[in-house]
């Protein structure tokens, strides 16, 4: 009977990159090999099969390619299958509006720094001052702290906009220092960051 001896494991690949899934079979008599996605061959899109169907290649993977893939093997005696899960990610990218130097007067009111980032899935921005994390606040009208909003600009990339508000009663010497905005994506160790220095003018 056929045996699947080596199947590509669960993986998270990069969006818009090629993805290769392999399925090695031992079988006597020889087995027919085919693939399904989410339980159906009709869900396979922008794929090619190589090496007598043992290799499935996805060209420039997109979100529709995320899912559960099964390798099936069948001969006149027996049928078997094994499954793997494919997820995709887009590496985060970050920048701070206004460049690397920001100038504040002591006592200056209504000041803030804005950080933009994108990635997939679910990018989140974290602020630090002098390498110490600043807690986030969900209220966009706060006197000081961080407010974030997320949006999707197309079918792939998700944006995050994070605004760091200084003390709205007037900036103090505690506001001066090195600020870092770090954007990360969910369930992955990938991060990107941008920095700016706030100085007294």
List keywords for this structure.
2 domains; 201 residues; seven-stranded mixed sheet; five-stranded mixed sheet; mainly beta; Immunoglobulin-like; 16 strands; rod-shaped
Compact description:
The chain is mostly beta strands. It has 2 domains: 3-90, Immunoglobulins (Immunoglobulin-like, Sandwich), CATH 2.60.40; 98-200, Immunoglobulins (Immunoglobulin-like, Sandwich). The chain contains no helices and 16 strands.
SSE blueprint:
Blueprint lengths: L2 E5 L3 E4 L4 E8 L5 E6 L9 E4 L4 E4 L8 E8 L4 E18 L4 E4 L7 E9 L3 E6 L2 E3 L10 E8 L5 E8 L11 E8 L6 E10 L1
Parallel strand pairs: 2-8, 9-16
Antiparallel strand pairs: 1-3, 3-6, 4-7, 5-6, 7-8, 8-10, 10-14, 11-12, 11-15, 13-14, 15-16
InterPro entries: Cell_adhesion_signaling, Ig-like_dom, Ig-like_dom_sf, Ig-like_fold, Ig_sub, Ig_sub2
GO molecular function: cell adhesion molecule binding
Subcellular location: Membrane
Report what the structure shows.
- The structure is a single chain.
- The chain is 0% helix and 56% strand.
- The protein is rod-shaped and about 85 Å long.
- Strands 2, 4, 7, 8, 10, 13 and 14 form a seven-stranded mixed sheet that branches. Strands 9-16-15-11-12 form a five-stranded mixed sheet, with no helix packed on it. Strands 1-3-6-5 form a four-stranded antiparallel sheet, with no helix packed on it.
- It has two domains: 3-90, Sandwich (Immunoglobulin-like), CATH 2.60.40.10; 98-200, Immunoglobulins (Immunoglobulin-like), CATH 2.60.40.10.
- The chain is an all-beta fold.
């Amino acid at each position: 009977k056929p045996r699947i001896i080596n199947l590509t494991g669960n993986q998270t690949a990069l969006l818009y990159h090629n993805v290769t899934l392999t399925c090695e079979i031992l079988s006597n008599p020889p087995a027919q090999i085919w693939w399904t996605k989410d339980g159906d061959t009709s869900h396979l899109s922008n794929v090619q099969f190589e090496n007598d169907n043992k290799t499935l290649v996805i060209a420039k993977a997109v979100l529709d390619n995320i899912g559960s893939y099964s390798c099936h093997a069948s001969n006149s005696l027996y049928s078997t299958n094994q499954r793997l899960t494919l997820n995709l990610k887009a590496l985060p990218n970050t920048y701070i509006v206004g460049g690397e130097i920001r100038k504040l007067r002591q006592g200056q009111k209504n000041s803030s720094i804005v950080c933009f980032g994108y990635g997939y899935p679910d990018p989140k921005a974290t602020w630090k001052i002098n390498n110490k994390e600043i807690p986030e606040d969900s209220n966009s009208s706060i006197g000081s702290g961080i407010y974030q909003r997320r949006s999707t600009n197309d079918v792939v990339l998700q944006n995050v906009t994070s605004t760091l508000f200084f003390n709205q009663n007037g900036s103090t010497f505690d506001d001066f220092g090195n600020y870092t905005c770090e954007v990360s994506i969910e369930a992955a160790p990938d991060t990107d960051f941008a920095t700016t220095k706030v100085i007294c003018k």
